[in-house]
Amino acid sequence: MPIPGALLTFMGELADHNDRDWFKANKGRYDADVKGPALAFIGEMAPHLADVSPHFLAVPKAQGGSLFRIHRDTRFSKDKTPYKTHTAIQFRHEAASRDVHAPGFYVGLEPGASGLGAGAWSPPSPALKQIRNLIVAEADTWQQVKDALASEGLEFMGDDMLKRAPKGFDAEHRHIDDLRRKTFAVHRSLSDAEVCAPDFAATLAGHYQAASPLIRFLCVALELPF
Q: How far apart are CA 109 and CA 61, in angstroms?
């Protein structure tokens, strides 16, 4: 099932009316225009995702599955608006049940600002060290990964970095800018037309395939199957 334009419309209206009374009055629309189509799309992604890697899961469930909750966690945020203004979907590695920081694929849907992601978001220190160690040990391979990503227009998320070299790593290393990363993930923007196209599942899987050199490298570093 393609992503309907109504999903983007609802998310745009929610951004303008981000309060519980409005959402309660429009809960039926959310279920029909957002939640239902998103779960159907997740199910449609399953065979496409299996072609990228059999170890990443598309689980069409609202709780404990690939669809994120619409509610924001506001406990530690100055922004107390209760709802996310994008529909968030993550296709986790099968190991995520025991390691939430395992690599994964992501897509966020909102009018004029949809995008996809792939990688490991803020992994804990032991996992970061494993990734950094592999970059040092396989510097040429890491360069090939970066070249492959760049050729596909996939850009690293670059705002989550250490100010200097991590402890124990050479500040003059050829990949020092990457060794300073705390998140190893790439992203790409998606237009509304791409999102609502009938072949969006295949298109998204193609982007994930393009990001697979990074995911494969991370899986090797973290001793996970790809």
A: 17
The length of the chain is 226
pLDDT by 10-residue block (mean), the chain, 226 residues: 94 97 98 98 97 96 93 90 97 78 93 98 94 98 98 91 96 97 97 98 98 98 95
Structure tokens at 28: 């039926």
Contacts with 54 (C-beta within 8 Å, 6 or more apart), sequence order = none
Q: What is the DSSP string of 187-212?
A: EEEE-HHHHHSTTHHHHHHHHHHHHH
27's CB contacts (< 8 A; 6+ apart) are: none
Would the pTM of this model clear 0.90, i.e. be above it? yes
85 near 11, Cβ under 8 Å? yes
Distance CA 30, CA 12 (A): 12
Q: Are 164 and 179 in contact (CB under 8 A)?
A: no
Distance CA 133, CA 159 (A): 21
Q: How far apart are CA 46 and CA 56, in angstroms?
A: 9
Do the Cβ atoms of 106 and 90 come closer than 8 Å?
yes
Domain map (residue ranges) of the chain: 5-221
Report in angstroms the alpha-carbon separations of 186 from 3, 80, 116, 146.
23, 28, 8, 10
Top-tier CATH class for 5-221: alpha beta
